[in-house]
């Protein structure tokens, strides 16, 4: 006769291997999880150390308050960060102007109006758009958007802030649309029905109920998208140019923080030179920007949360 | 007042259809409804009078919720719904192609199974209806909000926290805020779809008392799975079973002297 099920369970639980595995697996999982954290910490430490080296050669005040970025000068090298920040902000501002209305409109359409088949078709397309390599967006900006702009506005130069701005905007549309759509669809059906039962039209439900209820998620998606736009590299390197300028000019060549790092990394500067260290200082500045944006996203999404 | 009418009718009328002099709010004629191929409502004929509480009872899946949602066409949110027959609301067929659902739902308010306030302040919840229908004057809005909250017997409990989120109060209070929200546009009819099924007994009692109060000004149709509740608060009761109306009569008659064996079995707890 076979042993009872309880006896077999007791026998199986008594095995040493099972106990050992139960102990080891959490340790292994912890170690693997630590790798990602440690990598991040390592990167930040490197960034900070090299940035400190940079500041032993260039005064912090010059970097923070200087308005001229001229690292390749034969006479005096100038490392005022503002032209690069301004370049980044120009591109980001245009991207936001392009992406926020399109992204949120798309989200409203998808969550409130689109039929199930339409939603099932459009969402994957949006995700494909999010998967296009940025280098492709880059030459799209340079070889298509810029010539189109030039045909309308002859003032626009080959390298400018508008064209990469528009294309970075297009790039972050899927992010805003997709995350905002998630936030809006997660508004409970019953709340919508409550509004419809009061005689609201679909548009009134979307604008007065769903949108405010999903506002925190939408804000978070926008801020994350901005942080992505700030860090975008290939598009601005290809189409933005490499002229750091401290003015409000959008039609001339600019240079963003990321594009500067690419320029130097491509080999214009040798190891150990001030220019070499400057990319770490710029990278650290960039890191601060995106970090602040991410913290802001978390804060705003809490601040505007409508409880339900 | 109602009891006297009931007394008088009981002696003279046929059990299923009661002739009365009160005006009808809703006349349902040969209503059929399908969810895809599932025949959920079969040849429904019901005549609902104004200023009465009409209860709809029946076991789960009998079509009672479907029926009440058909009365304000909320049922059409389910994509595969098909209907035939007609529902006359104040003598107009609500299925007419030129009948706007928004207009219908402005006249016919609804309270749902689970409290579903908007994620806004209590004030904004109640003011929502008047606002979307174009009332902007702050003074008038204040007046409407107070009157509606009083009407829903919740004013005293929330008057000091009108600008707090409606989700911060208890479930029973939320449900009364939802009733106030419905009252704010001064509807003609209030549909209640098991409004107390998610509430505790004390909140339930408050809502039941409120229903008694509201019927002076409104016609109320209430779906309930709780037979005692139907007996306590309604003037007429319709018993639904498998998508059909088995019996529709004065509540007293349904509960004391039902004419159909199935009604009797259900009421006495033999099934359902």
TrEMBL record, chain A:
Keyword Transport found: yes
The protein, known as: Phosphate transport system permease protein
Lineage of origin: Bacteria, Bacillati, Bacillota, Bacilli, Bacillales
SUPFAM superfamilies: MetI-like
Subcellular location: Cell membrane; Membrane
Gene: pstC
Transmembrane segments: 24-49, 79-104, 125-146, 158-179, 209-230, 275-300
Pfam family, one: BPD_transp_1
Single Gene Ontology MF annotation: phosphate transmembrane transporter activity
Native source species: Planococcus salinus
């Amino acid at each position: 006769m076979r042993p009872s099920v309880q006896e077999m369970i007791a026998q199986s639980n008594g095995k040493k291997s099972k106990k050992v595995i139960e102990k080891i697996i959490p340790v292994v999982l912890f170690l693997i999880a630590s790798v990602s954290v440690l990598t991040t910490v390592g990167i930040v430490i490197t960034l900070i150390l090299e940035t400190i080296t940079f500041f032993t050669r260039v005064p912090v005040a010059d970097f923070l308050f200087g308005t001229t970025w001229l690292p390749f000068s034969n006479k005096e090298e100038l490392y005022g960060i503002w032209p690069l920040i301004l370049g980044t902000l120009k591109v980001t501002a245009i991207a936001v102007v392009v992406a926020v209305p399109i992204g949120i409109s798309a989200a409203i359409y998808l969550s409130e109006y689109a039929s199930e088949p339409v939603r099932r078709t459009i969402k994957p397309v949006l995700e494909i758009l999010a998967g296009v390599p940025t280098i492709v967006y880059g030459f799209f900006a340079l070889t298509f958007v810029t010539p189109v702009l030039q045909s309308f506005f002859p003032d626009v130069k080959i390298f400018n802030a508008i064209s990469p701005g528009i294309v970075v905007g297009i790039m972050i549309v899927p992010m805003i649309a997709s995350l905002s759509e998630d936030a809006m669809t997660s508004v409970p059906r019953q709340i919508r029905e409550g509004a419809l039962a009061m005689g609201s039209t679909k548009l009134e439900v979307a604008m007065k109920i769903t949108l405010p209820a999903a506002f925190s998620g939408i804000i978070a998606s926008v801020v994350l998208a901005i942080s992505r736009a700030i860090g975008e590299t290939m598009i601005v390197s290809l189409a933005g140019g490499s002229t750091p300028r401290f003015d409000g000019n959008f039609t001339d060549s600019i240079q963003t923080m990321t594009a500067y790092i690419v320029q130097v990394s491509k080999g214009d500067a040798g190891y150990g030179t001030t220019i070499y260290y400057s990319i770490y200082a710029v990278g650290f500045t960039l890191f601060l920007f995106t970090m602040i944006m991410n913290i802001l996203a978390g804060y705003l999404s809490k601040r505007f949360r409508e409880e339900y | 007042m109602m009891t006297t009418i009931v007394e008088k009718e009981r002696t003279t009328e046929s059990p299923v259809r009661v002739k009365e002099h009160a005006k009808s709010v809703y006349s349902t004629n040969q209503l059929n409804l399908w969810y895809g191929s599932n025949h959920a409502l079969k040849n429904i004929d019901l005549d609902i009078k104004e200023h009465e509480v009409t209860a709809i009872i029946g076991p789960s899946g009998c079509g009672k919720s479907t029926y009440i949602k058909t009365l304000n066409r909320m049922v059409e949110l389910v994509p595969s719904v098909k209907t035939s027959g007609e529902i006359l609301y104040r003598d107009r067929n609500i299925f007419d192609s030129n009948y706007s659902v928004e207009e219908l739902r402005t006249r016919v308010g609804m309270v749902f199974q689970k409290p579903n306030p908007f994620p806004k302040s209590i004030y904004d919840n109640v003011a929502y209806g008047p606002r979307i229908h174009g009332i902007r004057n702050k003074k008038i809005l204040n007046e409407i909000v107070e009157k509606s909250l009083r009407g829903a017997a919740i004013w005293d409990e929330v008057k000091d926290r009108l600008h707090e989120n409606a989700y911060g109060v208890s479930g029973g209070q939320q449900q009364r805020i939802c009733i106030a929200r419905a009252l704010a546009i001064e509807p003609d009819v209030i549909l209640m779809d098991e409004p107390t099924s998610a509430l505790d007994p004390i909140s339930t009692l408050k809502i039941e008392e409120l229903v008694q109060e509201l019927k002076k000004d409104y016609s109320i149709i209430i779906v309930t799975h709780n037979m005692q509740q139907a007996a306590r608060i309604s003037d007429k009761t319709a018993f639904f079973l498998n998508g059909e109306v088995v019996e529709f009569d004065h509540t007293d008659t349904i509960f004391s002297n039902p004419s159909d064996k199935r009604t009797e079995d259900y009421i006495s707890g033999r099934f359902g």
